[in-house]
């Protein structure tokens, strides 16, 4: 990547250009049209001269608008065709405004001078217009992380100056377009350096024509699609390639033998395909660092010699292959090696670790045939030999014959200072200053290393970020990295906090600058990090409403002498009003100032970016909490649907007097829990209200209600077997995040089908954290608690011993899995679903003989692929002893393997929508958030605590 090009590009984009004349009238009209089409535009968008008045995000040259850069400011609305009237526009960046929806207007093709089109992380949908191929000056095109559908426009092949092409993380379908006579295609992009197409639904083969020797491509990233056929040998002609990701597709055939011609290649991901033939020979690829060939069907072969001689290798992953024989001892002494994962293969003989690299953090050799183990000294890092014959005896290997423990992870520490306590909502920077940081997640797509604890990597990344912010003179005090994690796509996630140096929060102009640094890949991390994308966590508290210096302030300063007398005579009155205003702001920013400590057990909630709503605001957006707005009810009170001032639809849970939340403890717990955890399979807390005796929680609106309600059939949505597997894996991922990746880890304690909600695409979201508990500091020890939960879902070991662990959630999730199979309540007519299934199971029969228990909806003439494995997993989850149950991460992996068996891509978002189905019959009142919404026979069993 040429960072000097990026630096010049970004400086041009963000420059503040001097104005020689008032703004062109056509540009003024077009900006006003955008202003009327959008909500939450910058506060200084007033007046008739945007260039002269310095409108935030608008840069001009000689009275013409040349740049519109409005990332991360909360814009709401659609991109109208009025955009076409900016005839001199060179940059359009609307990234990270998740409430920007609709399609890209075809009229965008009229912007003939546009060089940079960046719409990352919004909610745009529909097809990418063919007219985008008319933008002949385009060098940077980033439309990733939206909901674009349809085919990749072949007209993109006309963009001869294109340097960066990123269409990843959308819903694009169809084949990869290549040129054919008069039709252009991606093979024509010989000057393009980056192809980012991962996490879509592309199908068909990879055309050999796509690659050629005159390309300068560095990244070819097509992971997590539905591509078929073989890898074309023409790939080996692109000598400039540094990273290849074809993993998580449906590719077959042999790996091209000329792949080792790619001597600049650092990262190679070919896992989770159907590749056959000999194991690829990667000899001579001297800078190859990260290799993953797992889950393919290569021919049985001895351990390849190249893995011992590749001196740059940091990570080797060859799980579920037919690799056999003894591991060469020289492999462990590779000076760069950090991770070796060869489980579920045919390795045998003696494991000899007498000499190993100080970098080596993990050796995972589970489920092989290793018979002996020899070591010199003690290997202190993680070695897993579980499932090998060597573990059948006792001795030196005993400590290695069990599941591994989590590895260390980097987190930015304080810099020669003592952290200070900060006001609610603020955080302490590494320089021990309190402020509202700009927060978000960096996703590194193809890093060439795997060590999450190597401080030198991440300190270098921090330095690169600070250098980039400093180059643009952005007022950044420091940055903090934490919560490092490999996600399900093998992307490296890093939680990033950027702290302001001047005020306690950034203004909008600075936020736009920081977002642009991250959007345009302006940072220069060590080369092993590779490209990234950024997902901000938006919080009003991180934004200073004073987004720019207005013209009025400038004029006021110029005539300040004239106003001295007036200021002096009114100083007392002004000070009084300012004091009252400050008091109001303090009360709004600290709505728990009056929190009853006797009821909240002595602490006020510690919040992270959750918005406070006034009671009057919520009353207004629900029509006075009218019956027409009611969408659910339970022992806690009622749930209402409303639309807040920003236009976002929300579900508003209002506690009634004497409900579970009346004590305040569960109310505070749920606010704190949901403000700390962020995952696509967890319900997002938008805000709360705590005034006038009210306790109200405001969530994102999840339109299709509870899993229990949908299993009953009354919602009008029929969940077939495939959709139930998607619900299972989604909710399992949410729980696995709570157990293993939340900081600190969380035990939900009330997992049940009424606490799993389905969004518009039937993706599962775990909800309701009122009973949740934080794990102990070591994340593994039990927590002794007062027993709470719901009968039928409760872990019997927890009920008897009062010792709560994450395995209690696993038990409850096993009950949910049985509900997915049977659509029955956990307890009805005095019988318990676990016992009923266990007694009826006959493993010698088809579907284990459970035909009479299986929900008829999923027995509608279709084969239930993976059903028996699903039942086995559910029954393992409900083992009486917690030690015998799997972890939630193991549950996730097993459900993913079941989905693959059923022909589903476990990493693809559900393509189902509730709009496919008819709703409830006319006259039926469907309340998707009501816990009483069910049609099971028998009495409804009350919870130990009221359902909430």
Automatic annotation (TrEMBL):
Membrane topology term: Single-pass membrane protein
Reaction(s) the record says it catalyses: L-threonyl-[protein] + ATP = O-phospho-L-threonyl-[protein] + ADP + H(+); L-seryl-[protein] + ATP = O-phospho-L-seryl-[protein] + ADP + H(+)
Record's keyword annotation contains Amino-acid biosynthesis: no
Domain of life, per lineage: Eukaryota
One Pfam assignment: PK_Tyr_Ser-Thr
Record-level Gene Ontology MF annotations: ATP binding; protein serine/threonine kinase activity
Single GO cellular component term: membrane
This protein's UniProt keywords: ATP-binding, Glycoprotein, Kinase, Leucine-rich repeat, Membrane, Nucleotide-binding, Repeat, Serine/threonine-protein kinase, Signal, Transferase, Transmembrane, Transmembrane helix
Record InterPro entries: Kinase-like_dom_sf, Leu-rich_rpt, LRR_dom_sf, Prot_kinase_dom, Protein_kinase_ATP_BS, Ser-Thr/Tyr_kinase_cat_dom, Ser/Thr_kinase_AS
Signal peptide (from-to): 1-21
Annotated SMART domains: S_TKc
Domain Protein kinase, first and last residues per copy: 625-899
Annotated binding of ATP, by residue: 653
Annotated localization: Membrane
Segments crossing the lipid bilayer: 551-576
Entry EC no(s): 2.7.11.1
Entry protein name: non-specific serine/threonine protein kinase
Lineage: Eukaryota, Viridiplantae, Streptophyta, Embryophyta, Tracheophyta
């Amino acid at each position: 990547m040429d960072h000097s090009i990026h630096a010049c590009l970004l400086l041009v984009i963000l420059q503040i250009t001097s104005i020689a004349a008032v703004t062109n009238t056509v540009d003024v009209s077009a900006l006003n049209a955008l202003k009327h089409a959008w909500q939450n535009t910058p506060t200084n968008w007033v007046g008739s001269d945007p260039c002269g008045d310095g409108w935030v995000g608008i840069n001009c040259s000689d009275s013409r608008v040349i740049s519109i850069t409005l990332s991360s400011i909360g814009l709401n609305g659609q991109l109208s065709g009025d955009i076409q009237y900016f005839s001199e526009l060179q940059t359009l960046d609307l990234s990270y405004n998740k409430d920007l929806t609709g399609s890209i207007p075809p009229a965008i093709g009229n912007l003939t001078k546009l060089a940079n089109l960046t719409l990352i992380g919004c909610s745009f949908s529909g097809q990418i217009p063919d007219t985008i191929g008319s933008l002949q000056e385009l060098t940077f095109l980033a439309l990733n992380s939206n909901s674009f559908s349809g085919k990749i426009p072949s007209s993109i092949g006309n963009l001869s100056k294109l340097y960066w092409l990123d269409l990843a993380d959308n819903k694009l379908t169809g084949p990869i377009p290549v040129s054919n006579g008069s039709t252009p295609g991606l093979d024509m992009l010989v000057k393009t350096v980056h192809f980012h197409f991962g996490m879509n639904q592309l199908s068909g083969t990879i055309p050999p024509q796509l690659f050629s020797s005159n390309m300068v491509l560095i990244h070819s990233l097509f992971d997590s699609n539905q591509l078929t056929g073989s890898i074309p040998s023409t790939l080996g002609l692109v000598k400039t390639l540094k990273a290849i990701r074809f993993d998580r597709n449906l590719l077959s055939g042999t790996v091209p033998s000329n792949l080792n011609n790619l001597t600049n290649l650092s990262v190679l991901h070919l896992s989770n395909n159907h590749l056959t033939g000999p194991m690829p020979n990667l000899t001579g690829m001297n800078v190859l660092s990260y290799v993953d060939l797992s889950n393919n069907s290569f021919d049985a072969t001895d351990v390849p010699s190249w893995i011992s001689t590749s001196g740059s290798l940091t990570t080797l992953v060859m799980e579920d292959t037919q690799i056999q024989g003894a591991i060469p001892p020289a492999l462990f002494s590779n000076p760069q090696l950090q991770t070796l994962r060869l489980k579920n293969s045919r390795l045998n003989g003696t494991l000899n670790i007498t000499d190993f690299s100080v970098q080596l953090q993990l050796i995972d050799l589970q489920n092989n045939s290793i018979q002996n183990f020899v070591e010199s000294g003690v290997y202190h890092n993680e070695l897993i030999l579980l499932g090998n014959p060597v573990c059948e005896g006792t001795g030196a290997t005993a400590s290695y014959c069990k599941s591994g423990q989590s590895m260390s992870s980097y987190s930015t520490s304080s810099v020669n200072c003592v952290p200070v306590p900060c006001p609610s909502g603020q955080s302490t920077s590494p320089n021990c200053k309190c402020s509202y940081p700009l927060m978000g997640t960096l996703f590194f797509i193809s890093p060439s290393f795997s060590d999450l604890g190597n401080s030198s990597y991440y300190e270098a990344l921090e330095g690169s970020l600070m250098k980039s912010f400093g180059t643009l003179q952005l007022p950044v005090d420091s940055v903090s990295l934490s919560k490092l994690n490999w996600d399900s796509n093998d992307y490296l996630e890093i939680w990033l906090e950027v702290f302001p140096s001047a005020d306690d929060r950034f203004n909008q102009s600075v936020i736009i600058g920081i977002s642009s640094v991250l959007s345009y890949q302006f940072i220069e991390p060590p080369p092993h990090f590779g490209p990234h994308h950024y997902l901000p966590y938006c919080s009003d508290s991180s934004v200073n409403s004073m987004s720019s210096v207005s013209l009025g302030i400038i004029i006021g300063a110029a005539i300040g002498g004239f106003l001295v007398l007036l200021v002096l005579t009114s100083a007392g009155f002004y000070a009084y009003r300012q004091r009252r205003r400050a008091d109001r702001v303090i009360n709004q920013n600290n709505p728990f100032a009056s929190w009853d400590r006797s009821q909240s057990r002595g602490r006020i909630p510690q919040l992270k970016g959750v918005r406070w709503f006034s009671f009057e605001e919520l009353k207004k957006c629900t029509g006075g909490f009218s019956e027409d707005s009611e969408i659910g009810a339970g022992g806690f009170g009622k749930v209402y649907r409303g639309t807040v001032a920003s236009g976002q639809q929300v579900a508003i849970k209002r506690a009634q007097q004497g409900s579970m939340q009346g004590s305040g403890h569960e109310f505070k717990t749920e606010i704190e829990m949901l403000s700390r955890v962020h995952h696509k399979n967890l319900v997002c807390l938008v805000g709360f209200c705590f005034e006038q005796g009210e306790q109200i929680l405001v969530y994102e609106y999840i339109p299709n209600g509870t899993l229990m309600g949908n299993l009953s059939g009354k919602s009008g949505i029929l969940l077939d077997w495939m959709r139930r597997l998607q619900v299972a894996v989604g909710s399992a991922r949410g729980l696995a995040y709570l157990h293993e990746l939340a900081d600190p880890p969380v035990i939900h304690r009330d997992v049940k089908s009424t606490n799993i909600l389905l969004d518009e695409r039937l993706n599962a979201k775990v909800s309701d954290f009122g009973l949740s508990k934080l794990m102990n500091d070591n994340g593994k020890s039990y927590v002794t608690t007062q027993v709470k939960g719901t009968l039928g879902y409760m872990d019997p070991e927890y009920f008897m011993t009062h010792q709560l662990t994450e395995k209690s959630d696993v038990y409850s999730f096993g009950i949910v899995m049985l509900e997915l199979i049977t659509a029955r309540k956990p307890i009805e007519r005095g019988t318990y679903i676990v016992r009923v299934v266990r007694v009826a199971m006959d493993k010698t029969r088809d579907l284990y003989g459970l035909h009479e228990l299986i929900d008829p909806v999923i027995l509608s003439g279709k084969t239930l692929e993976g059903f028996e494995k699903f039942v086995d997993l559910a029954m393992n989850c409900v083992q009486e002893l917690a030690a015998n149950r799997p972890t939630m991460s193991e549950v996730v992996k097993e459900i993913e393997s079941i989905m693959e068996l059923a022909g589903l891509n476990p990493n693809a978002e559900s393509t189902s929508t509730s709009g496919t189905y008819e709703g409830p019959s006319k006259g039926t009142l469907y309340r998707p958030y009501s816990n009483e919404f069910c049609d099971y026979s028998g009495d409804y069993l009350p919870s130990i605590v009221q359902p909430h």
